[in-house]
Structures are given as structure tokens and as C-alpha cells.
Amino acid sequence: MTTTNISPSQFLAQDNVYLPHIAVIEKIIEETPNIRTFHFNFKDKKLQKDFSFESGQFGEYSVFGIGEAPFCISSSPTRRHHLEFTAQRVGRVTNALHRLGVGAEIGFRGAYGNSFPLDFLKGKNLVFVGGGIGLAPLRSLIWNVIDNRGKYKDIDIIYGARTPADLCFKYDLDIWGRDKTIKFITTVDRGDESWKGKTGVVPKILEEAAPSAKNAVAIVCGPPVMIRFTFPVLTKLGFTPEQMLTTLEKRMKCGIGKCGRCNIGNIFVCRDGPVFSYEQIKGFVSSEY
Amino acid sequence: MASKKINKKDIAKLLNQWSRDFAVFAPSRESGVATMARWGGKDTGFLDWYRNTVVAPKANFLPQMEEMFRFQKDGEGYHIELPPDGEKQLIFGIRPCDARALAIIDANFKDLYQDPYYLSRRNNAVLIGLGCTSPGESCFCTSLGISPAESNDVDLMLTDIGNELLAEAVSAAGKKLIAKTSGLKAATRNDEARAKEVKKTAHNKVTRKINAEGIVERLLACFDDQGFWEKVAAKCISCGICTLLCPTCYCFDINDELIKQQGTRFRSLDSCAFPVYTKMPMENPRAEKWKRVRQKVCHKYGFFPMSFKDIACTGCGRCVRLCPVNWDITQVINSVPAKTGVKK
To answer: I need a surface site. Which of A43, A59, B201, B213 has the fewest CB within 10 A?
Structure first.
């Protein structure tokens, strides 16, 4: 160990990964009664220009005085007018976020974690399987793929929620539904009189739709129970564990692999994930996911 | 550089001399428990009672609670302000087990992203080791490659040779410190021979042993043996004291506090023993106690060495000594079967 002459405060200022950037909320979209999407921009215009991220990465968002919580960036890096994240009102920070209005300032650290492997997806048929708010990370990738449409082959999107009122990003669903280059299915567990989509849980509808596994990759995100039932269906359709990707969620405080809590065995979801193939997940020491 | 020696009666003088350049910390019982406390200028006779501190010196680098920054809102929005300059610390009397612990957890704070709070303290500290000549019944450092009176993880190593402490520089910073310090006497060959004897004797005084051989593989092999872990966890009361006092446990939480528009973001020690540690609004991957105890044991002896090579335990014995229900990690490690248990 060596002593250096750098003063501790210089060190803190120069290289402090824990300091949030100040961002301003520019728009709030009520997706469902308890899920909102926030559009934001950094206050520092230079940062707004220089900031880079990949689909699948997440940030630590602060409501000052309440605390930090992790959410994926739900907008696409191909659309940089602003950034977006989507939060369900379930805990302390998300309740505080839902009380904020347009113009409010939040803190942002990131982007952290790995991302969807675009090089691996290139030239493949893509099958997106999403449930509820789990569409948020997929949506970043879906727009990314649509904006580079020529690089990818067929696109299937199967998206479901409990009821029509629980579907998120309806404005995107409308566009994808009209896009002739996308095979798009929405489903709900329970429909109502005006519901025109499918009725049934996502894994069941996926099995009916039976997208081909040939030269395909399935990207799955939703509540854990949906993910657990989706992998066996994909396996039945001929997808190998390497052909199935998902993004995992954990309590992540630091976001950078230091605070300890988001581990699954020796894997840290924040540092080594959040995107994993089913092949990787099968190799985890622990089933604590 | 030839080694030096210090008369024990001159300890106060020496620490006062170092206080001119450093914030000096030395063993103290003033708060009621043994800690590394700010040196007060007068000899408290700590050399007579000091075995080890209850609160590990990791507290000097990863405090129980620390301010990360302050924030305040005015008409223009939020402003963030960093805490004031840290001090250059000199830790006097750190034991080889605790010095090794810091070297072990450095890996976590340096990995991928640099942790500025911890590392700025580490980079601005001098560690003066003091060989342990009366290891406790609960100590088992020698099973983990540590010798109680020897260390390469400090800057300067002291050995009790009777009326005097032999001082040997271990690092460049230690050499520099010796060169700058007045009042040290040159040690004789006899002093050095005596110190060597003391180190050997101390090593042999550690009687508690663990079988850490192949422990990573052994743990992985019985990871899914719920019955084994339920038995191991049976008497644990999830109080977290073993982790909070452990010199290698570094898990932390980050929170905000807002008092009269003045906000603080702080981090504090956290513990895998607490259910809330991993709790998400909708689910908790380690809600059951046996899973949390498994995490504690497997992190130290399995996952950490899988990531960083070292076992994250130094055999300091605090968790054995201070557990309110006598949970004993040495018994647990010794009871992990050789790699023939339930395989995944």
C-alpha cells in the first residue's frame, strides 16, 4: 500500500461514481393507474449531448431526500431527444416519484450494467415476449431494432398484461400493431367487452403463436412467474438456452457491484447483468432469482 | 533498512510526534468497548490490556455511517456539495488479521468502478501493525494463512520484545515514516532474534483450526442441501452483529435524510442477515433465514474467492466471540462435507 499526495476531497470530486447528475422531468405519461413513464433531460446540456447508453442498461434515480432506486432506461439510444424510464408505484422512492410533476428535478447515476447483445442479434429473427411493466427494457431494444430495421430479420412481439387497463405503452402498441414488418400480438388474462386482442396468459399465447426457433432469439421480460413459464414453452418450440435472453431485477442500491445485495451466487445482477441468457442462468450457483 | 526499537514508556511521546502529521488512532476503551479511537495525547496503558478491538478497524475506512454528499435546493434547483477533506490517518496497533482484512476488501472497492470514499481513506492512511502475542480462544487466523505477529499488509510492523517494541518497515511508506521519526533506537541482533522467537511462539498459540481445504468446491456441492443449511441456521437470530463487527464484511446501504431543506445522502453498513437487505416491493429472494445464513457463509468462503481469489475471512474470531447465541462459523466450515454431498 502506498500513500499518495492526492487530497481526499480532490479524489472525491474527480472520480465519484456515487454523485448523481441533475435531470429535469419534461413529461409524465400515465401508463396505468400505478405505472408512469417519465421523460427527462440532464440539466447539464453538455452531458445531455455526451451521455451514452445501450438498450438494457439501467440507472439509479434519486428523489432527493427520499432515496435512490434502479430502473432501466426505457427509451432507445437511437432516439436521443430525451431519456425515459418507467416506474410502478410500489415502494418509498416510486411513491415519491409519482408525486413529482413536470419540471421537478431528479438525480441520475448510470448507465450501469450490460446490455442486449446487438451483434449477436444482428441478422436474426427476434421474438419479443413481454408482460406488464416488463415491456420497458424490451421497448428500448424494440425501437432500437425498428430504427435499424435492415440489420434484423423477422420481428415477433407478444405482449400481455392482466387486463386491458394494465397494458403499458399503448401509444407504442398502436404503432407496432400497424407496422406491416412486425408480427404483433397483444393478450390479456381477462378482457372486457371492447377488447379485440387475445385472451390468455403470455406463455399460452406464445405457444399458440409458435414462432420458429430457426435463426431466432427470444427476448423475454416480465414478472418472474411469466418468465418461469415462458422458458419451457420456448424450449418446446425448439429454442436453445443460448437463444433465450432475459433481464433480471433485484434490489440494487449501488448499481456498481459493491454494496453486496443483488448477488446470485458469485454473479452480481447490477454488474454482470441485468441481461442474461437462459444458458447463463442455468449455470448460476443459486436459484435465488 | 535495519530495524529500530521503541521503549514502551515512550509510546505517548511517539504518538504525539506522529499526531503532528496524522490523525492518530490507537486502541481505546473509553467508549465502553475496545475501538480504534482518536489518540488523546496521554498514555492510557492500552498495551497492557489490548488484545484486539471489538469494532474492527475497517470502521476507519468504511465507517458505520458516513456522509456521501449534501444537497440543497434553491431557486435554481438542486446543488450537491461534497464532504470536507478527509484526514491522513495513522492507525497504531492494527492486528495482522485486521490488516489482511483491509487488503482483502480492497478488491471489492477497486473492482470495475473505484469507490472514492473507501479508497481515498486507504490511500491516505499509514498502518502500524502490532504483533498479537496472546491470541484468543476464538481466533483461527493461522488456518487462513495469517500469522498473529507477522504481516505484509501494514506499513510498519511492531513486535513486543519485553520493555520495548521492535519496529520493522514493511512498505516504502513505513521506511519513510521511520526515517522521519525521532527518538527511535537502533535494534540489536539480539532484539531481532527475540522478535523472531516471539512471532514463532505467537503462531503456535493459535489452537483453533478450521478445515478450509477445497472449501469453495465443498460449499458449491452442498449449496442446494436445504436440510444442511436449516441445521446450520437453526439458532441464528438474524441480529447481524457478526457481519457488522466482521473486518471483511463490507455490504452497505445508501439512504437520504432531509432536515429543514438540508439533505444528506449517507451510506451505512448493512447486513445479509437482515431480511430487508434483499427485499423488493413484490418479492424477496432471501426471505428465509437459512438462505441468508447460507449467503453469509457462501459469500465469505465461496463467492468472494470465486471472484477475487481470497477467502473473505481472516480468522479474527469476532463473530465467534461476540455472537449472542454462540453461532460458530468454525464449526460450520468444518461441518461442510468433503465434495460428496448433494450435487445440484
So the answer is: B213
* Alpha-carbon gap, residue A139 to A159, rounded angstroms: 11
In a domain, A19, yes or no: yes
**pLDDT surpassing 60 at residue A167:** yes
Q: How many CB pairs under 8 A join A and B?
A: 167
Instruction: Output the pLDDT for position A8.
Output: 47
**Rounded-to-integer distance, Cα B225 and Cα B29, Å:** 43
User: Considering CB atoms only, which of A250, A256, A260 is closest to B251?
Assistant: A260
Please indicate, yes or no, if residue A79 is contained in any of the structural domains. yes
Taking CA atoms, what residue in A is nearest to B268?
Answer: A259
How many residues belong to chain A? 289
**Last residue in a domain, options A85, A112, A139:** A112
Q: Which of A171, A190, A217 is the last residue of a domain?
A: A217
Q: Do A260 and B270 touch (CB under 8 A)?
A: yes
Cα–Cα distance measured from residue B65 to residue B183, given in angstroms and rounded to the nearest whole number: 38
Residues B173, B171: Cα–Cα separation, whole Å: 5
Weakest-pLDDT range from B29-43, B125-139, B207-221, B329-343 = B329-343
* Cα A25 to the center of its chain, rounded Å: 19
Residue A150 lies in a domain: yes
Query: Residues 159 to 188 of B: which have CB under 8 A from any A CB?
Result: 171-173
Nearest CA distance, B303 vs chain A (angstrom): 5
| Euclidean distance between CA atoms B58 and B109, whole angstroms | 13
Q: Which domain holds residue A27?
A: 15-112
Instruction: Quick: pLDDT tens for A34-65.
Output: 999 999 999 999 999 999 999 999 999 999 99
| Contact across the interface for A67 and B254, Cβ inside 8 Å | yes
Report CA dihedral (B335, B338, B342, B344) to the nearest 10 degrees. 120
Cell of A257: 457491484
Written as one letter, the residue type at A12 is L
Q: With beta carbons less than 8 A apart as the criterion, state whether B329 and B301 touch.
A: no
pLDDT at B76 over 80: yes
**Residue A199: HSE in the Cβ half-sphere, 13 Å Cα cutoff:** 8
Q: Is the pLDDT of residue A4 over 80?
A: no
Q: Name the one residue in this structure whose C-alpha cell is 489490548.
A: B50
B130 contacts: CB under 8 Å, gap ≥ 6: B50, B92, B93, B94, B95, B158, B160, B165
Query: Cα–Cα distance between A216 and A155 in angstroms, integer?
Result: 9
Nearest-angstrom CA–CA distance, A113 and A90: 23
User: Looking at the complex, does the CB of residue A225 fall below 8 Å from at least one CB of chain B?
Assistant: no
Measured CA to CA in angstroms, residue B213 lies from A18, A265, B296 at distances of 38, 20, 18
